[in-house]
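Memo subject: From amino acid sequence to discrete backbone structure tokens
Action wanted: Derive the backbone structure tokens from the amino acid sequence.
How to read it: Take the token row as a discrete description of the fold.
Attached in line: The record itself begins immediately under this heading.
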Amino acid sequence: MSPSFEERLDRWRQRVEHEMDAWLPSETARPGRLHAAQRYSALGPGKRIRPALVYATAETLGMPLETVDGAACAVELIHAYSLIHDDLPAMDDDDLRRGRPTCHRAFDEATAVLAGDSLQVLAFSILARHPGGPLDPAVRVQLLATLADASGTAGMAGGQALDLAAEGRNLTLAELEQIHALKTGALIHASVAMAALCQPALGADGRAALDRYSRAIGLAFQVQDDILDVAGDETLIGKPVGSDQARGLPTYPALVGLEAARNRVVQLHADAIAALASQGWDGGPLAELAAWLLGRRH
């Protein structure tokens, strides 16, 4: 990854964090403890991968970034809410997230549930109200529907339910890929799709190419996570190596082996770049972002 792209990633991160800071209620406003928990979780350390996909798509399509600030904010808040709930004792029961106490440890379980609930609602409020978003109400509705579909039982929540039900079971490769595509891939796909919806001049071929790209990257991202759980650096990934396997969670390397999992990431990356190349976008920010995502060590 070029230094210039690293700088671009940092600008995108700062941009969405500035936006979220402006939309999140102040800790001094009642109920202060709930607002503090929201801000603790949403503004804590993070790579801001999903907003980066929103902004990279916008730049690829020649759009001003203010057009998609609302989408970038919304998708990151949905991600933040999902992490709060995933960490709860009823789900993954984690004490640390990105090197800090999880929300329910830093506050309490009830506050964590409410923080997640209210971040989810805020995400949709921002999509509906952000002044930089599309002026056409029909497009706003499409944005809301896209994020809702990616977050619900046909997306992230459904994938998490299937993942929990799969603990200790032997899955087929198709079943595992479905879980990955829903739990992780759906929100990644929505990040690209929402930005594309904000560009009315984009034709059907371009939308199809972005759809293919985002679905390939979404699956590859989770397969790479599975690989890092087996072969990653514990100090970088922020959890013990092999923790997923120890809990009986279904992973790609456990099912097909580490080498086959790495080959699958290479294959999916090639598919994503081929989709971009069909529109002449293979030298742009989405291609660089794909290389960064799939070459990461944490």
